[in-house]
Amino acid sequence: MDEAVTAQHAQPPPAGGPAIPDGDDAVARRTARRRTSLGHILGRWGLVVAVGLALLAFGLASPDTFLTADNMRSVLLQSSAPMILAVGLTILLVLGDFDLSIGSMLGLGGASAVALMALHHVPWQLALAAGLGLAVIVGLLNGVIVAYFGASSFVTTLAMGTVLVGVEFAFTDQKTIYEGVADTYLTLGQSAPFWGINVQVWIAAGVAILVWLLLEHTEIGRFFHAIGGNPDAAYFSGIAVRRWRVLGFVLVAVAAAVAGILVTAQAGSSAPQAGITYLLPAYAAAFLGSTSLRPGQFNVPGTVIATVFLQIIQTGLQMLQLSTAYINVVQGAILIVAMLLSRLGQDRA
């Protein structure tokens, strides 16, 4: 009788090893579930955790200044233009394409509007429309060359970026323009209509919501994801692959121009090649965002969180009065650690 009971509570012995009691097997299963759960949490929410840790660390380092309402509003403001650019870039990355001209387009979009107002006395509405119109033209050129002629998006947009810098210099004569900007234009970057939060923050939030709705809740968004996943399969399923790729280039160029207009409206001036510094942070935010919430996929919420995270790091380091050299080193190191943390979570999930 005892032998029968023992046989019921023992598993068949694995090859070359002893029988594993049910109790040990249950513990192993619980441990595996805990590891899977931890991996899922890190993979999905690692970036959110990193944001919380950064806020805590800088809050403890600068308790009287960092976590104040004014500083948090400043973080959101400084995140606005980079967020618009990175969210627009997310559309193109979903399609599987790249655009290295977006920094130059940001500079040209703002500089052209300011130059038309200040140097040629064009009404601010027409100047703003001209900046956006240039973006549409640039996006169409990039898209047609890449999608219809089969050119490399890296090479094409890198060359286009050089062209746009030349066009910007032609508009501004390589000078900083700070006089003759319409007051109404300045309100696009300097007013705070609700709760003391700058209008740029609301515009950035609106752009992010619109792009999220486009990518996640429309047929166009499904086409974009299908093209990015497998363009050949998308083509044979009846999707107009080249047409939608062109639209992606147009949308990211328009987003860059909007960001440039807001940058110049906030500063009340235009400086030569001001948009170049926005290129790498936009890609960093988009790729870092793809490691969170929906690991392995470019997504708007992840891009938004990543943009704010990078700005928190920059603001916190500046408040600690570190030199620019150390700030660059620390920013890069933190970005690598955050990506490794999210990658670790993906591997365990």
**Overall number of strands:** 0
Q: Give me the secondary-structure category.
A: mainly alpha
Q: Write down the CATH class.
A: Mainly Alpha
Q: Rg, please?
A: 25 Å
CATH architectural category: Orthogonal Bundle
Apparent shape: globular
Write down the secondary-structure element order. HHHHHHHHHHHHHH
Mean pLDDT: 86
Q: Low-confidence stretches at least 5 residues in length (pLDDT < 50)?
A: 1-11, 13-21
Précis, in short:
With 349 residues, the chain is mainly α. Helix content is 76%, strand content 0%.
Task: Describe this entry's structure for a reader.
This protein is mainly α and 349 residues long. The chain has one domain (48-343): ABC transporter involved in vitamin B12 uptake, BtuC. Helix content is 76%, strand content 0%. It is built from 14 helices and no strands. It has helices at 2-8, 22-61, 69-94, 102-120, 124-148, 153-172, 183-190, 199-217, 219-229, 231-236, 241-267, 279-289, 300-319, 324-348. α2 (22-61) packs antiparallel against α14 and α5 runs antiparallel to α6 (153-172). The two termini are 44 Å apart. Residues 1-11 and 13-21 have low confidence and may be disordered.
Give the tags.
single chain; 349 residues; mainly alpha; ABC transporter involved in vitamin B12 uptake, BtuC; 14 helices; disordered N terminus
Write the layout of secondary structure elements.
Blueprint: H1 2-8, H2 22-61, H3 69-94, H4 102-120, H5 124-148, H6 153-172, H7 183-190, H8 199-217, H9 219-229, H10 231-236, H11 241-267, H12 279-289, H13 300-319, H14 324-348
